Amino acid sequence: MYWTWWRMPEEEYNVYHKFKPYFILGQLDYSKEILIPKTRNGHPGFDVVNPLYCYEGGKLSMKGLMADGDSVKIERAAVILNRGWIPAELRDKRSRPTEINSRQLVKINGCFRPGLDVHKYSAPNDPNSNEWNNMSLEDIGIFWDLPNY
User: Fold this and answer.
1) Domain count of the chain?
2) Scanning 13, 76, 83, 113, which has the fewest C-beta atoms within 10 Å of its C-beta?
3) 131 found inside a domain
4) How far apart are the C-alpha atoms of 122 and 110, rounded to whole Å?
């Protein structure tokens, strides 16, 4: 039971969320990008993964209110967003000039998909050398230091 207590129960996902369209508003961070190798129709390429930060909620601190008047701390909760496949020629960010960081909110349409367990992958990721082989959500959350990891 490797950290399965925080995951959504499979029955709840299948009944309420599977194939249901959602939209999320947030800031897409292009500076944190992971490229996972994937061949599509015989062409080499990559799945592009970025964090989408949502500013929902926050934590109320009475101690902060008494000390300096800043009582609400807003955390940047993130969703790991699989943006899709790109051909291998577009691996270099300079070949994608439209992907620049901005503080604008973006609306992303899609559906939630459950991640696989960390033990189901045969080739491990190596974040230290930026070599990614699979979509292990635990590895990505630790690498990006997400507050809601």
Assistant:
1) 1
2) 113
3) yes
4) 28
